[in-house]
Design goal:
Number of domains: 2
Strand content: 25-35%
Number of strands: 16
Number of helices: 6
Largest sheet: 7 strands, mixed
Shape: elongated
């Protein structure tokens, strides 16, 4: 009885060890397929052929080949060519369970990544860019994201007022930490997410200067220029990538890269304190703040950037060619 029990116990141990090793292999396959799908999705929807090529190259670099049943496919979910799916399989031979007649198992993993545009977003600065201005910008071009008092239009300087914001301290806090409330792009509203936001016609010179200088001061020397933060994608120079060492968004969450910001793009300015509509969001690098007239008026400048990434705090909407931001996210 003891010999029989020992044989059964050893057989169970052998099976547990082999199954554990097989599951570990599956986790490795899943990680590789996730990374390959995300790498390919950056090129969607404009270049599906390059997306497939990059996904296959990424998978190969992680030890996955056609022998592993590698399959890469671009499909359309909400927009043409907006989704890429990577599927892999691998036969895993068992080492210890063969005497039991269990020779191995086939592990499979698949991942789908989709490119989209933000439907809703928070943590953006209380400044904005007019849609007519953004339409004329190319990546790297400079732009004003807050006018000084001489250049403001209709009593507005592109500054915005967040709900429950009352006074200079709240405005300075909003510059550093961004909006706590989520706002939507016009046409993609959902319950609790409005595309309408109020302007801030007040000068707010002191908190503006202090808030922007806090962003500049708390940014490391390694991330204090546009060229250090953004670089062309080697596989597709028409795309830009955020350096992982300076990426403030998940999964990198670089805390001392404060100059990379998201701004709402508004339909236009209105007269005094009034409501404007958000038509898209845009990525900017804050270059500086210039105050004139005894620091009685401040102008904030930035450089426009385009990069495919995911803040992790947004509602992903269908891809729009008019959107100034492109997000990629694993959806399966």
């Amino acid at each position: 009885m003891s010999v029989l029990a020992l044989a059964i116990l050893l057989g169970m141990v052998a099976l547990v060890v082999d199954v554990g090793l097989a599951l570990k292999e599956r986790r490795s396959l899943q990680n590789a397929s996730d990374a390959a799908a995300l790498a390919g999705a950056r090129e969607l929807p404009d270049n599906p052929a390059l997306a497939i090529e990059l996904a296959r190259a990424w998978a190969t670099d992680n030890g996955i080949t056609a022998a592993n049943g590698l399959s890469v496919e671009v499909t359309s979910t909400y927009a043409p060519n907006d989704t890429i799916t990577v599927s892999v399989t691998r036969d895993v031979p068992y080492r210890f369970s063969r005497p039991l007649g269990v020779m191995g198992a086939t592990m499979a993993a698949d991942a789908s990544a989709r490119v989209g545009s933000p439907a809703g977003l928070d943590r953006f600065l209380p400044f904005s860019v007019e849609d007519s201005v953004l339409s004329g910008l190319n990546p790297g071009d400079p732009a004003i994201i807050k006018y000084d008092s001489q250049d403001q239009s209709q009593g507005n300087s592109l500054a915005l007022s967040f709900p429950d914001s009352s006074g200079a301290s709240d405005f300075r806090h909003a510059i550093y930490y961004g909006s706590e409330q989520t706002y939507c792009v016009a046409g993609q509203e959902y319950p609790g997410c409005s595309s309408t936001i109020s302007t801030e016609p007040g000068a707010m010179v002191g908190p503006t200067m202090q808030g922007i200088r806090d962003l500049l001061q708390d940014t490391s020397a390694a991330c204090d220029s546009f060229e250090e933060v953004f670089a062309p994608d080697a596989s597709n120079p028409s795309n830009m990538l955020i350096s992982p060492a300076c990426n403030p968004f998940p999964p990198y969450n670089v805390a001392d890269s404060k100059r990379v910001v998201i701004l709402p793009v508004i339909d236009g300015l209105c007269n005094g304190r009034c409501d404007v509509q958000i038509v898209r969001f845009a990525l900017f690098f804050v270059t500086g703040v210039q105050c004139t007239g005894g620091q009685s008026s401040c102008e904030i400048t930035g450089q426009y950037a385009e990069a495919a990434f995911d803040t992790g705090t947004l509602k992903l909407g269908p891809y729009s060619g008019d959107a100034a931001l492109k997000f990629v996210r694993l959806v399966e």
